[in-house]
From TrEMBL, chain A:
Organism: Planomicrobium stackebrandtii
Domain ABC transmembrane type-1: 74-288
UniProt xrefs under CDD domains: TM_PBP2
Record InterPro entries: ABC_transporter_permease, MetI-like, MetI-like_sf
Location, primary (coarse class): membrane
Membrane topology of the entry: Multi-pass membrane protein
Protein name as catalogued: Multiple sugar transport system permease protein
UniProtKB/TrEMBL annotation, chain B:
The name this protein goes by in its record: Multiple sugar transport system permease protein
Domain of life, source organism: Bacteria
Keyword Membrane: yes
Sequence similarity: Belongs to the binding-protein-dependent transport system permease family.
Chief place of localization: membrane
Species the sequence originates in: Planomicrobium stackebrandtii
PROSITE patterns recorded: ABC_TM1 (PS50928)
UniProtKB/TrEMBL annotation, chain C:
Parts forming coiled coils: none
Keywords: Signal, Sugar transport, Transport
Protein family (similarity comment): Belongs to the bacterial solute-binding protein 1 family.
Protein name (record): Multiple sugar transport system substrate-binding protein
InterPro entries in the cross-refs: Bact_solute-bd_prot1, SBP, SBP_1_CS
Residues spanning the signal sequence: 1-22
């Protein structure tokens, strides 16, 4: 009996390896090499084209002790992540709840709200720069209807990051899609049972919908955390000269890293930066994974 | 043979649900069920309609700019409606660069990337979600970790690698990696597979089904909405990818739409009307695809009712 | 369902077939550096893809290909900015293009990093440095050797509305010559209606910014020849304070509203007369020509801080470089010589209304009868202004020094730092940067 179990388990393992094999092959072939290279080069003065001498931990030491812009960029990025991740997550869940209903024109609405997520790239950022213009932009025009004197948005260091968060909120349609897909998996019979018990819509949402979509909420939080730390192009396009201004308020981590790598050609230094970021994000993700069993509810799990 | 019975019973459940939920889909949206419920639907509708104005106004700016003459684009204050509707802008845009060729190129790359992503990721994710094996957690941590390293620092070594493979100026670097899974999609699909009850898989195994069969016959159908999501995300990603094609393609005959659009953005000035017209044309297939792909969300299948 | 799948497969198949599968053919790594006629093939990368510029550069290439039978130049367009990321990757992979257009202010840096090839070997044989404005030529040098050949350039001048001048009782043939006159004229040109301005005389931070005015005031860059940092200077302090008086005068609301119009290119207020003077590159003329044909305007050098301090202006430009590791540097250099010679440069200048690096070509272009009267006037001004124009090549020791100055100055304009503090901090930060980098 025991022996049979063992072979069963071994057989399962073999299946497991077969299933994940494509990823292992792809990883070894395309990703592992560059990753190892970038790790090694973070201990050198690698400049891409002509030098790569071992410098020990100089890059790391320099970052922590001598580089004020490193700390500025880290702070800006943390600020952005701390606000944008919860706000976009909540926004996307609420939106998908509205879009998961049987009302006229729902297909049209879904397409419409997804649109901003499709529109990507520089064009959108340029568009938002016009919308956020303090004098002539649409955002402040709308605020003025409610007698609100809008801020200077991208010109005021206190408002630049909120500007980007606002723009992110506009395009929550991407994660909305995830939640919508996940809500399709929630059984209608659960709602019907709840209705018989007299639970109102909010209670149903709170006690049925939310628990059932926690696996996707978890996914969304983890990936937008990872993505949030890598914010780059928004700041590159929307700050003056792509420098992260005004007053360094949009100097995000990756923007600073980009500048070190491709403008100053301090690639070794940039690689050291990337590994520091990696450690930060990895630790946060581990915390997330540890906390997950407390609130993420997998229907498939044995209880 | 027992497998087929299992399969059939599952289909039955699915149909049963359809009829169940069918009661919700009665005509006369706002009158049938209780008043309270209809009120909520009305509020829902009004919220969505109001929100769509916020979503639409930036889009309208794109559309109206795309129809203006350059002189009107440059006039101040900006006009809300174009003075004259210059549909010919779209023709001129299309002719400003070999866009027909670019469309075919982009379509080729995108199709292959979508196929690769859907097949590889759903396969790999099943392994991570539903099969216990030694080292799984470590491997999965590495999968997640690959997302956390900023692409800039691997860009150069990766380019050198593809150059050594002699793949520069071909579509291989853009397409081949898609067939080996990507962290984001593996993670996403894993989350969906995790919600499939283990009893269902155990039952199938009892009937003698192996994991390939279970993946194909149970895993795939049950995660259709998620796969549709992966397909849409991959399409969107490949369609809008700019840096990849830019780095790896040298021959202008191989260029994609996103590179083509750049011709309207000069170093000094931007031809806004053509840029917007071009952006909208490039956007159109994605919108259409999404509009028609939606039914895969609506058709979502749930097992929780039956499985428990 | 089956049918659909069939359709999909069919569609896909035809798409693949149509794309000629060219995207899936790997070529020989030796790369066809020689074509079937036995000519050496030169891969030339530019960011000139617009309807206006592309035909001009391709005509120049076609002319070159016609002119001899040993070299065949092949042009590839790549988007501005990204072109250099790609170039860098290709240099790292050892298979770069043969000639690339790149920014003149960072040429020396690329020389030091061994991205651009040292051209002194070619120049010894065939010195063409005399063709160009000395300021441009010097910017290409690193430790005495040149790493790129200047192609085009620009400068900053003052455009002014002659009708507005007359309207305000000023002599339209006598533009402001000093900062004091600039202020005086602007005050006369302002037309205020309640809190709003119907016409603004001048605002110094539209079109150019504080760095150009500092250059204009002091006539010197942030670094001297020995890489000593000279940011915290009396002249820079005066400049910042002077700029602040303009900001106070018009107020942030007015400034932001006008700036929006200028930035978005949606109707520059200079076009309709609501801005009377505007400092910008001479190529701004092409926008006037296209969008405000009737405008009665003049151009002048930037005013001087005080009589005799000099009308120093700022410029940049682009060079043709041969990336390190390129296969046929001799042939590449042949082509670059043609590209920067009088004929090609004059053609470029006239067709694009662009400042070129070749002095003779620039002067020919100014006299060209292809320009209108206004065009010739502006072009002549651009050419004349070159003698006051300084470039700001980045010091190889601290290529990113501006990121240690701009944030402080921005804080000053926002009111959270005094001018003294901003300059002192910039001076200290940049000195610190230089120290760290020279370790």
């Amino acid at each position: 009996m025991g022996k049979k179990r063992l072979t069963m388990r071994r057989k399962e393992s073999i299946y497991g390896y077969i299933f994940v094999m494509p990823w292992i092959i792809g990883f070894l072939a395309f990703t592992a090499g560059p990753l190892v290279f970038s790790f090694m080069a973070s201990f050198t003065n690698y400049n891409i084209t002509s030098q790569m001498d071992f410098v020990g931990v100089d890059n790391y030491q320099g970052l922590f002790t001598e580089d004020s812009l490193f700390w500025t960029s880290l702070w800006n990025t943390l600020y952005f992540v701390a606000f944008s991740v919860p706000l976009t997550t909540i926004g996307a869940i609420l939106l998908s709840a509205l879009l998961n209903q049987d009302i006229p024109g729902i297909r049209f609405f879904r397409t419409l709200y997804y649109l901003p997520a499709v529109l990507s790239g520089v064009g959108v950022y340029l568009l938002w720069m016009q919308l956020l213009d303090p004098g002539t932009g649409m955002v402040n025009l709308i605020l003025s209807w409610f007698n609100i004197d809008g801020p200077s948005w991208l010109f005021d260091p206190d408002w630049t990051k909120p500007s980007l968060i606002l723009m992110k909120m506009w395009s929550v349609g991407g994660s909305m899609l995830l939640y919508l897909a996940s809500m399709q998996g929630v059984s209608k019979s659960l709602y019907e049972a709840a209705e018989i018990d007299g639970a109102n819509t909010w209670k149903q949402f709170r006690h049925i919908t939310i628990p059932m979509i926690t696996p996707v909420i978890f996914f969304d939080v983890v990936t937008s955390l990872i993505g949030g730390f890598q914010i780059f192009q928004e700041a590159y396009v929307m700050s003056s000269n792509g420098e992260g201004g005004p007053a360094n308020s949009l100097l995000f981590y990756n923007l600073y890293m980009w500048r070190q790598a491709f403008e100053n050609f301090n690639m070794g230094y940039a690689m050291a930066m990337s590994w520091i970021l990696f450690v930060i994000v990895f630790v946060l993700t581990l915390i997330n994974l540890k906390l997950a069993p407390r609130w993420v509810h997998y229907e498939g799990e044995e209880k | 043979m027992a497998k087929t019975t299992d399969d059939a019973s599952y289909v039955e459940k699915k149909d049963g649900l359809k009829t169940l939920s069918g009661t919700n889909k009665n005509p006369g949206y706002f009158e049938h069920r209780g008043n309270r419920k209809n009120m909520l639907k009305l509020i829902n509708f009004i919220l969505l309609a109001a929100g769509s104005l916020l979503i639409l106004s930036p889009l309208w700016w794109m559309i109206s700019t795309s129809l203006k003459t350059m002189a009107e684009v440059m006039s101040f204050p900006p006009t809300f409606f174009p003075e004259s509707w210059n549909w010919s802008n779209y023709i001129r845009t299309w002719e400003a660069a070999p866009f027909t060729r670019y469309t075919i190129n982009t379509l080729t790359i995108t199709t292959l990337v979508v196929i690769g992503n859907v097949i590889s990721n759903s396969f790999i994710a099943y392994g991570f979600a539903k099969i216990p094996f030694r080292g799984k957690n470590v491997l999965f941590a590495i999968v997640l970790a690959t997302m956390m390293i900023p692409g800039f620092v691997t860009l150069i070594p990766q380019y050198v690698l593809f150059a050594k493979l002699n793949w520069v100026n071909t579509y291989f670097p853009l397409v081949v990696p898609a067939f080996f899974g990507s962290a984001f999609n593996i993670f996403l699909l894993r989350q969906f597979y995790m919600t499939i009850p283990n009893e269902l898989i155990e039952a199938a195994k009892m009937e003698g089904a192996n994991h390939f069969y279970i993946w194909w016959k149970i895993g795939l159908p049950l995660t259709k909405p998620a796969i549709a999501t992966v397909a849409i995300f991959s399409f969107n990603g490949a369609w809008n990818d700019f840096l990849g094609p830019l780095l790896y393609l040298n021959d202008e005959n191989l260029y994609t739409l996103q590179i083509g659009l750049q011709v309207f953005k000069g170093q000094m000035s931007t031809q806004w009307n053509y840029l917007m017209a071009g952006s909208l044309l490039v956007l159109l297939p994605v919108i259409l695809l999404f509009f028609f792909f939606q039914k895969y969300f609506i058709q979502g299948i749930n097992l929780q009712s039956g499985g428990k | 369902m089956k049918k659909k799948r069939l359709l999909l497969t069919g569609l896909m198949g035809s798409a693949l077939a149509l794309s000629g599968c060219a995207g899936f053919q790997t070529s020989n790594n030796d790369e066809s550096t020689v074509n079937e006629d036995g000519k050496v093939v030169i891969d030339f990368w530019t960011f000139w893809g617009s309807e206006i510029r592309r035909p001009v550069i391709e005509q120049i290439i076609a002319d070159f290909n016609e002119s001899q039978d040993e070299i065949e130049v092949k042009h590839t367009y790549l988007p501005f900015g990204d072109i250099w990321t790609k170039e860098l990757a290709s240099i790292a992979a050892g298979d770069p293009p043969d000639v690339v257009i790149n920014d003149i202010n960072t040429t020396a840096l690329r020389g030091q990093e061994k991205q651009a090839m040292n051209l002194s070997e070619f120049l010894e044989e065939d010195d063409i440095s005399e063709r160009f404005y000395p300021e441009l030529w010097n910017a290409t040098l690193h430790e005495g050797d040149s790493y790129g050949i200047p192609f085009n350039t620009d400068t900053r001048v003052l455009f002014y509305n002659k009708d507005a001048f007359e309207d305000a009782g000023l002599d339209p043939e006598k533009p402001p010559a000093t900062w004091a006159e600039l202020e005086e004229y602007a005050a006369k040109l302002d037309v205020k209606n309640g809190d709003d301005y119907e016409r603004i005389g001048f605002y110094p931070r539209w079109g150019i910014d504080f760095d150009v005015w500092m250059l204009n005031a002091g006539g010197q860059n942030y670094f001297d020849e020995n890489n000593n940092v000279q940011i915290d200077t009396a002249s820079n302090l005066e400049t910042l304070e002077w700029l602040k008086t303009w900001q106070t005068k018009y107020g942030d609301d007015v400034i932001n509203a006008f700036k929006a119009q200028i930035d978005s290119q949606q109707g520059n207020p200079f076009f309709n007369g609501s801005l009377a003077m505007y400092a910008i590159t001479p190529t701004f003329y092409t926008q006037i020509r296209d969008y405000a044909e009737e405008l009665n305007f003049g151009v002048a050098p930037l005013p001087e801080r005080e009589s005799g301090s000099g009308n120093t202006s700022w410029g940049g430009g682009f060079v043709a470089e041969i990336p390190e590791g390129a296969a046929n540097p001799e042939a590449s250099y042949e082509f670059i010589k043609y590209l920067t010679d009088v004929d090609a440069q004059e053609y470029w200048a006239v067709q694009n209304f662009d400042n070129v690096a070749n002095i003779e070509a620039a002067e020919n272009a100014a006299a060209s009868d292809e320009f209108t009267e206004d065009g010739s006037m502006v072009y002549q001004m651009a050419v004349d202004n070159m003698e006051h124009t300084l470039l700001t090549p980045v010091p190889v020791i601290a290529p990113d020094f501006t990121s240690y100055i701009n944030p402080n100055v921005e804080e000053f304009f926002l009111g959270s730092m005094t001018a003294e503090e901003a300059l002192a901090k910039s001076q200290a930060d940049v000195e610190n940067l230089v120290d760290n980098n020279s370790q």
